[in-house]
Design a protein that fits this description.
The protein has 19 helices and no strands. The protein is mostly helical.
Length: 448
């Protein structure tokens, strides 16, 4: 399907494409019942907790990226090797993610456009193309984590060889994305169910692990490292938590879902979306903390070897707890891989359409980003190492999404009444500088 050529100052109208070319934006205008309920909430006719319900959903889709298989790899490796030491990194990264995702959601609410579209309009053509290219590379790194993780889940649970398991994982993402044709609420509900599976699984694992509550509390607030390897893992944890591709996605999830008619309504929508972000990312943060706590409690002093990998953790759970505990872990990994793979594809479509105003068939998009992951599986590269390295790549991509987001979010001519005040821009800028500094330190250490 071909869209009409864009005018010089206007976005091209969005027409419903065939099912094979569905994108996030196509389903955002969505269901009349949700829009009507949202309108009643905005006008004060809905009271109590029910007034928030129509606005919940976008952050839960974004939160999938925060509990993808890359998080399994970095958190398990961190807990098994360093015990509870890096819990503060997980907590800090999650708090940063809440700020970043709120900023991204605000961008869509305030402007009716997503971050990729605004980058194209705000920066030079050369800069926009550069941002697009790195975003596509980040999408491929994301797919490595998601597909390899889902393939590992299938392999551990059913004994399916990794390469065909990767093909099944890619196909599973299509099935979830097919829910778009039924409306955005169906898609959000389907992904929320998978998130629920992951959350429930790690609640069960925590019960079995019996962690040291005092050590957990201590290392949640006490920063510390233990050599270069711990810094590498910390960088991976940040990359696995503050996901650059989902910074683009969240702005697209809110840009046309519920449209405010004036500044007052936009501010109210933002208030509801903050609740969505806090709930969704709190759950994601608890899952990430649980992953590291379980690994620290069970594996750090167990004397078992190889438990710092996903496969080793699966076998370790069998040895130290039970086969049922290992199965629960495998189910969580599989649910995480399927959900995050579909979300990654959605984000890739947003990036391409926003930066270069091009839309390619979903199958082709999926095939392109799937190829590196399948190649890694085919050549027999260690899956857990691939997952950890993919998260480090994602961490390097964070500034290229975060800096443009903050530059645009402070501009009153774009954001109107929702423009960031100076203090918020300063705080966010400091956090961005810390992430960039961590990456520079890591690069320098690896070179030397």
């Amino acid at each position: 399907m071909k869209l009409p050529p864009p005018a010089a100052t206007e976005e091209p109208p969005v027409k419903p494409p065939p099912a094979t070319e569905a994108t996030v934006e196509d389903v955002l205008p969505g269901e009349a019942a949700v829009a009507a309920a949202a309108r009643r909430s905005l006008e004060g006719r809905n009271r109590g907790i029910g007034r928030i319900w129509p606005f919940l959903g976008p952050a839960f889709i974004a939160a999938v990226a925060y509990i993808d298989p890359g998080n399994f790899a970095t958190n398990i490796a961190g807990g098994a090797k360093f015990g509870y030491l890096l819990l503060w990194v997980v907590l800090s990264a999650n708090l940063i993610a809440m700020l970043v995702q709120t900023q991204s959601a605000k961008l869509g609410i305030a402007t009716g456009k997503n971050l990729a579209e605004l980058c194209r309009e705000s920066f030079s053509r050369r800069t926009s193309i550069g941002l697009w290219v790195q975003a596509e590379l980040v999408a491929m790194a994301t797919d490595v984590a998601e597909v390899v993780g889902a393939a590992l889940g299938l392999n551990l649970l059913f004994g399916i060889p990794l390469f065909p398991a990767g093909l099944i994982a890619g196909a599973g993402a299509f099935a979830i994305l097919g829910l778009q044709r039924m409306g955005f609420r169906r898609l959000e509900a389907g992904i929320a169910v998978l998130v629920g599976v992951v959350v429930a699984s790690f609640v069960i694992e925590l019960f079995h692990a019996k962690p040291d509550a005092g050590e957990v509390a201590k290392h949640l607030v006490l920063p510390g490292f233990a050599g270069t390897e711990s810094i590498l893992l910390a960088t991976g944890i940040v990359g696995a938590t503050v996901m650059p591709h989902v910074v683009y996605l969240h702005s697209a999830l809110t840009q046309k879902r519920i449209v405010g008619r004036n500044d007052a309504e936009k501010k109210r929508i933002l208030g509801f979306e903050k609740v969505d972000v806090v709930i969704a990312l709190s759950l994601a943060g608890l899952v990430n903390l649980s992953m590291m706590i379980v690994a620290a409690a069970l594996f750090n002093t167990s004397g078992l070897t190889g438990v710092d990998s996903i496969e080793g953790a699966f076998d370790g759970l069998k040895t130290l707890v039970s086969g049922n505990a290992a199965t629960v872990f495998g189910v969580a990994l599989l649910a995480s891989g399927f959900a995050s793979s579909s979300v990654g594809t959605m984000a890739g479509q947003v990036v391409m359409q926003g930066f270069i105003r091009r839309r390619i068939p979903l199958f082709l998009r999926r095939a392109i980003t799937l190829a590196p992951a399948l190649l890694i599986l085919a050549i027999g590269f260690n899956p857990t190492d691939a997952l950890v390295l993919s998260q480090v790549v994602l961490s390097f991509g964070i500034p290229f999404a975060l800096v443009p987001l903050l530059m645009i979010a402070r501009r009153r001519d774009i954001m109107g009444a929702l423009a960031n005040p100076g203090w918020l821009t300063g705080v966010a800028g400091i956090l961005a500088a810390m992430i960039i500094g961590l990456n520079v330190f890591l690069i320098a250490d690896l070179i030397v």
